[in-house]
Amino acid sequence: MGQQRQRVLGCNVGLGCALLAAISLNSAKAGWVDVDTPTDKLTATSLIDGSEYELVMSDEFEVEGRNFKDGSDPMWTALDKSDDDASAAGGGSLHFYNSSTVTTEDGMMKISSKLGKTKWTHYDPIKKEYKKVTKYFKSGMVQSWNKFCFTGGIVEVDLVLPGDPFIGGLWPAVWMLGNLGRATYEASTNNIWPWSFDTCDRDLQHAQHISACNNQNHFGLNPKQGRGATEIDLLELMAGDSDGPLPATEPPISLPYLAMTLQVAPGIPDNRPQSGAQPRRNDTTSANGHTQLLAQSWYDDLVTKGNTSINPFFYGTYLAETKPEEPVQRTKKEAFQADAIGSMHQVAQEHFLKPYTYRVEWQPGRGGRLDWFAKKVSSADTENSASSDDDDEDEWVHAFSIPDKSIGDLMGSQIPNEPSYLILNTGISSTWAFPYDVPEWCTKCYDCDDPNCACSFNPGFCKMMKSGNVAMKIDSIRVYQSKNDTAHPGNKHTVGCDLPEYPTREYIKGHEYLYVREPPFSYTDTGPLEKIKVGGGSCQTDEDCGGHLTPTARGRCTLSSSSFWRGQPTNKCQCNDGFTGPHCLAVDHNDDTPGVYDMKKKMSLFDHPRAFMWNTDMVIFVGILGGIFVGVLITKMGQRVDARRKGYTPVGPGESTRPANRGPLQFEDLIVTGRSI
């Protein structure tokens, strides 16, 4: 590193040199690690190549009562907004994301899903009228968007699945999305999600907003580089009671199961597999040798193991030309097919009773691969909660694998290479694990307090929700990366949302309107993300501010000086160094990965004088210019003084002189103006 520093700082190309130097000197390997992470979890072993990976991010959720509302945590943001995702058939999200549903309890992050009405008035720009909107469920989503991002490595999450395994209706998920798109903000993902395509294809250029065909992508993006918000779903739960194996699953899979999926564009345009059937790999012929059915186009070399099947029920989404009333707009040229390359992994009741570990190993870019793993359920797990060695290959099911060659050969796409962020959420959607067909007499509504809506829910769903005990519980989440780029296939592993190779923040800054909430929720917003609060939360004792925590007290409860002078004294939390949030319960994580946009903002004469590389020639040149200016100024002033004393006034070109009977010489007469005084 010392040689690299000397070499980079020794360059002589001004501003660009200083920018590269600042980016190259970071280590980016410690700023996001939770101090509560056990020492035996500071490294992990790849289950693919056996090499050692180092911990670069972790959250153990050991501190009770954390708040994840926007502006409260440096790593996570819990949303307060409607999830406006909707299907072409009109079904969609039934919940409102409320940050109060997310907290920490008993050493876990708890994302609760509950009954509760949320009402607001929404303006319809098409019909030009205000509409009242009501959502009958509240749930939670936390995301590390534009805070913690990474590219490649191992993601491990220990969690307890929410709800009843045999009652469908919840949609819990742990997933990753490229930082250029913000989950649930549909305007930011339109024609951005889920592109992973870095080739110029004129037929696809309109459908991929940031295309490799663009000679200049603007807003800090690299020219001729195809970009997108790629999606990797570590897990999505489909609960319910299927009364036996589901059709077309090989091996047989029943409800409940976890979907493990890569969503990618461009997708296969023609001769696609049909939902409800496995891909047809070969032509089928009649007895007399005539071809009856052609082989279907789907990805080769997909590997499933253990109790895992290729998912035959979801092969992707066609994002068609939109209607005027839809929240985003796409023209016919901008319509495209996105593929879902996924599997179904069997889970059991035990997964809803205690934490189990799930892992994805992500080797990014061309030549990379994706591998999903799940800890095995054994008799020892049900009888003894003691965990075994997480790096023991015998303890894992290698559920699903996607090699880059598979998607590259067929469609030219690649394993995601975008800086991506983490998302933990539970949704409630009429298009996910809800009754597929309802009787014609059924009133299609989704209010558990309305008896007329009962036929729209699975039996027992409303009773489960009324219990108030429905929550996904995350014991920990950790990200590991390899320091040895030659130990794994694909591209190097990186930490950061705004890398020189894949910048994002200047683009986001230039399109902030895509990343903010819709009215009326946006009226109090100052931008896509609020500034992190450092103390200021109401308190009674130091314990309310983390003062009781060991080994280091996080804050203390003090009398607010501003409230004292207002005559209404109140106590507020004051954070100790290294801690943040309204009640000082969050670690003040430091992202020591300087982003490209942040470095550009800092580039000034006073912040980085070395960036301008002053030398003798530049000093002499500036001195000569200054001397000429001063000389001309003095000469002009002298001419005007002499003229005034002689009784006439010099005038502009083409004008005659006139007497200057203006009394004593005035100060303003000395001002050089370019026309007569």
Kindly report the average pLDDT value. 86
Any idea of the CATH class of the domain at 75-278 and 296-378 and 393-514?
Mainly Beta
Number of strands: 33
Strand content: 25-35%
CATH topology of the domain at 75-278 and 296-378 and 393-514: Jelly Rolls
Assign the CATH architecture of the domain at 75-278 and 296-378 and 393-514. Answer: Sandwich
Main location: membrane
Domain GH16: 30-405
Signal peptide: 1-30
Transmembrane segments: 612-635
Main traits of this protein?
disordered N terminus; about 675 residues; Jelly Rolls; nine-stranded antiparallel beta sheet; ten-stranded antiparallel beta sheet
Topology (elements, then pairings):
Layout: H1 2-9, H2 15-24, E1 43-45, E2 52-59, E3 77-78, E4 81-82, E5 95-97, E6 102-105, E7 108-112, E8 114-124, E9 129-139, E10 141-143, E11 150-151, E12 153-160, E13 170-178, H3 186-189, E14 231-238, E15 257-264, E16 284-285, E17 291-293, E18 303-304, E19 308-310, E20 316-319, E21 336-346, E22 356-363, E23 369-375, H4 379-383, E24 396-403, H5 404-411, E25 420-428, H6 461-466, E26 471-481, E27 494-495, H7 505-510, E28 555-559, H8 561-565, E29 571-575, E30 579-580, E31 586-587, H9 596-602, H10 616-646, E32 648-649, E33 658-659
Parallel strand pairs: 5-9
Antiparallel strand pairs: 1-2, 2-26, 3-10, 4-5, 6-7, 7-26, 8-9, 10-25, 11-27, 12-22, 12-26, 13-14, 13-25, 14-15, 15-21, 16-17, 18-24, 19-21, 20-21, 22-23, 23-24, 28-29, 30-31, 32-33
Helix pairs in contact: 1-2
Domain GH16: 30-405
GO molecular function: glucosidase activity
Keywords: Cell wall biogenesis/degradation, Disulfide bond, Glycoprotein, Membrane, Signal, Signal-anchor, Transmembrane, Transmembrane helix
